[in-house]
From TrEMBL:
Gene3D superfamilies: 3.40.50.2300. Keywords: Phosphoprotein. The modification 4-aspartylphosphate is found at D52. It comes from Sphingobium wenxiniae (strain DSM 21828 / CGMCC 1.7748 / JZ-1). Residues 3-119 form the Response regulatory domain. GO terms for biological process: phosphorelay signal transduction system. The keyword Phosphoprotein applies. It comes from the Bacteria. This is Two-component system chemotaxis response regulator CheY. SUPFAM superfamilies: CheY-like. PROSITE patterns: RESPONSE_REGULATORY (PS50110). SMART domains: REC. The keyword Disulfide bond does not apply.
């Protein structure tokens, strides 16, 4: 079973994402910010990270930068989540190593297609 790490400071978003991802037969872990996510990736690398942009402690961008120099066996695919207001982040995120992006609020169909694009499902 493939593993997805959901990184978001919103408990509601994490719950929604978990529900969708589990319905796609992925096993799900959660992180509350970039730092939490980085620690979890170093312990055991997930297949894919669903990454929020705006978070306290360590943002999505800071996480991407830290991930590129982190000691992990296999780099996870990264799908970052942005809002319509954050469309300007897409270029920066891709340059920092994100594989795909998804607009919030996302639904099952959108998330499924993005996971297929990065080759996780
Ligand atoms: Mg957030």
């Amino acid at each position: 079973m493939k593993n997805c790490l959901v990184v978001d400071d919103s408990k509601v978003i994490r719950k929604v994402a978990r529900h969708i991802l589990e319905s796609l037969d992925l096993s799900v872990r959660e992180a509350v910010d970039g730092q939490d996510a980085l620690i979890q990736c170093e312990e055991s690398s997930p297949d894919v990270v669903l990454l929020d942009w705006n978070m306290p402690v360590m943002s999505g961008m800071e996480f991407l930068q830290a991930l590129s120099s982190a000691r992990i066996e296999t780099r996870p695919k990264v799908i970052f989540c942005t809002t319509e207001n954050g469309i300007g982040h897409i270029k920066a995120a891709v340059e920092a190593g994100a594989d795909e992006y998804v607009m919030k609020p996302f639904d099952r169909e959108t998330l499924e297609s993005k996971l297929a694009i990065v080759g996780v499902i």
